Amino acid sequence: AGGWTPFVSDKYQWLQIDLGERMKVTAVATQGGYGSSDWVTSYLLMFSDSGRNWKQYRREESFLGFPGNTNSDSVVHYRLQPPLEARFLRFLPLAWNPKGRIGMRIEVYGCAYRSEMVNFDGKSFLLYTINQKSMNPVKEIITLKFKTTQSDGILLHREGQNGKHITLELVKGKLILFLNSGDANLPSPDAQATLTLGSLLDDQHWHSVLIELLNTHINFTVDKHTHHFQADGETSLLDLDYKISFGGIPRHGKSMVLPHKSFHGCFENLFYNGVDIIDLSKKHKPEILIMGNVSFSCLHPQTVPVTFLSSRSYLALPHPSGVNSLAISFQFRTWNRAGLLLTSQFLHRSGALVLVLSDGKLKLSLCPPSQPVRAITAGAGLNDGQWHSVSLSAKGNHWSLKVDSNASSAAHSLRGWVDSADTYYFGGYPDNSSGSGCESPLGGFQGCLRLMSIGGTAVDPILVQQGVLGSFSDLQIDSCGITDRCLPSYCEHGGECSQSWDTFSCDCAHTGYAGATCHSSLYEQSCEAYKHRGNSSGLYYIDLDGSGPLGPALVYCNMTDSAWTSVQHNGSHLSRVKSSRGESPQPVIFKYMASMDQLQALIDQADHCQQDLVFHCKKSRLTLTHLGKSSAIADFSSRELAASGCRFMKFLYSQHQDHSLESTKMLFPGDREPGQ
């Protein structure tokens, strides 16, 4: 009476709501048990479409739960920004009044949610011929939601002339927007660009995508993160063909050389410039070509993941009765480089097996009593956050360990005795050891497992959750709680982000910066600062804005009475400027060893700035042009230069802090004073 109060107050209790269908949930509110000392002080809000695969709703990227109540009467209300769409909600108490028990009254606010869905089977796609009336010459907008359990697949593809194309592809759980402008005037690397957003997007939950094409500008949004991109050159990104494919690439695709995997999963509310593509497909409109088998509903795979939350977590499962063979398979994903995945003691004290993740590799150890340990390793880099499949089997005295099912993965074998086991411990052991004669210095596994099978019999984690099968400790069943702490990356200045289950770190090597997030510059801000330290002339890195966005630049510091900063470039060699036909000036292009932003910052900080060039001439016409706040043009005719016997001239551009051109000096060999 007066609210929900479970008989036992612990962290494995929850209150679950079935809304009957997917709804748009905009807010939640909680209250304690009526007239009691029972209330929840913090809780997690979980949501699901199927009731078997749950995801935590995070407030502003927070890993913590919702603050709850401080008494039994007051109502604590939270508006969900952004709202969520789900059929099932689950309130999971984390903490409660220490002088009472778990007690909750809840309210959920929202409204009906309508959507159109299409399901791709990994071999099908939609080809849409764009109605020119729906095309906007200034902007094109594509919106959709998707969900999948596959880490790779094509979401959309559109081509143009000269190899131009735009492709949105899921690669290892991340969305990558490939752009090729097809501009023949740009070098190959400049004509191509890749924009990457998202991570762990193969979690069988909905993710939203927004692509805005604005001539040479693109806004690319995945969930709540946006990437802005400005294309080089003058070629419009909107200059594409009138056909766009969703879910795969037609075989006649001209620009795609490497094979690409088609999408396997669901799309929802797919729109191009406001046109409902899925609705057109359902109505078999002529502008839509359906290739392969598609359905207009989204199936819910019955896969139930399990999260091992800490080094104390474990899952104990019995060996199936009547099964004599030893065959175990499962999939796992983690960021940790090491952890205990599986251990078991064989019957009759005949030894044990231990399967660990060590330095990103799998290691299987067989430990016969009073005999040396036998071990094999397989795989590499398995702590990349991706799902990896593991298959362990024994037949006769032959053991086989296989990681992932691709063709490049070979089975690793080991000879040893085989005996049946009574219980298998996944992810850890009750007393935090290996539970066997094999000493395992590693801690428990932190990550997710799914698709577990023992002796050819699939394990249903829901039965474990209900207490019908096996036992466990510190698990989160029916949810994979892995998060990417490097998205967004807090590492500055190009530092490489790496992570474990609960922390992240930055590798600042070769960045010129140090500190936890590569924030502090290793270099002085100017040659003047090096001079004050007593350094002599030479090459130095300077960081003009300290810990700001500009990186370090390599310059030559000339320590005279003043500290001169010289920026090197690649234009020291002689270049012929006379055109072969004498028709037009010949441009000479060179690059400094600093970016334009770094050069501008150096100029802004300098008391005086100059640029030297040398011109070798014979009966030539020279025009010097400076464009800035003021312009000065000196036009010397070939007669004047010939009269002066010009063979060599040196020009010195002097620039003051107001960025105006002071003078152009011509130095003639033999002249005592330069001509002005």
UniProtKB/TrEMBL annotation:
Keywords attached to this entry: Cell adhesion, Disulfide bond, EGF-like domain, Glycoprotein, Membrane, Repeat, Signal, Transmembrane, Transmembrane helix
Occurrences of domain EGF-like (ranges): 482-519
Major localisation: membrane
Residues of the Laminin G domain: 115-298, 304-480
InterPro entries: ConA-like_dom_sf, EGF, FA58C, Fibrinogen-like_C, Fibrinogen_a/b/g_C_dom, Galactose-bd-like_sf, Laminin_G, Neurexin-related_CASP
Subcellular location(s) of the protein: Membrane
Pfam families: EGF (PF00008), F5_F8_type_C (PF00754), Laminin_G_2 (PF02210)
Residue ranges of domain F5/8 type C in the record: 1-111
Similarity comment text for this entry: Belongs to the neurexin family.
Protein's recorded name: Contactin-associated protein-like 3
Native organism: Sciurus carolinensis
